[in-house]
Amino acid sequence: MLELSILGFLYERPLHGYELKERIQALSGHVRPVSDGALYPAINRLVDKGLVESHAEPGASAAPRRTLSLTPEGRAALLARLRSPKDAEITDGRRFFTVLTFLGLLADPAAQAAVLRRRQSFLLTPASFFYEDGAPATVEREPDLFRRGMLRVARATGTEEKAWLAETLAELDARAANASP
Prior knowledge:
about 180 residues; two-stranded antiparallel ribbon
């Protein structure tokens, strides 16, 4: 997800490494802080692949600042990744939110809708954190107070997300229909 975040934020505009870290931190830092030991090797991998360019600029102090920008290949790679997210980027809520952060960069409403339909399909499949005799545990039948809380919060969140997905898919479908000749 780190590479997706790097590509996505650089799609918007060139950034210094520190600015990029701040944006990524704001997106997911409360869940998983971004260390320099993870960020800069990821940037270097993207530079090595030709997806990101790095050049030095004079800094406010004596040290030069490294400015990062997306190459045309980086733009294409980001859009391809947004059109076809990995399964884990659909099923894991935190990863899906990262995809959502940049999904608006896809110009085609039908392509956006295809990604949301994958998430919707995942959410409509009965699942739980806990199972009893192979069946998903429910709030009503869970005896443990804290597990019941987890299930209740997950149900409420899932209900809202499913409603948002249905509304958004209807809007995207209308946009796609209006865009067709």
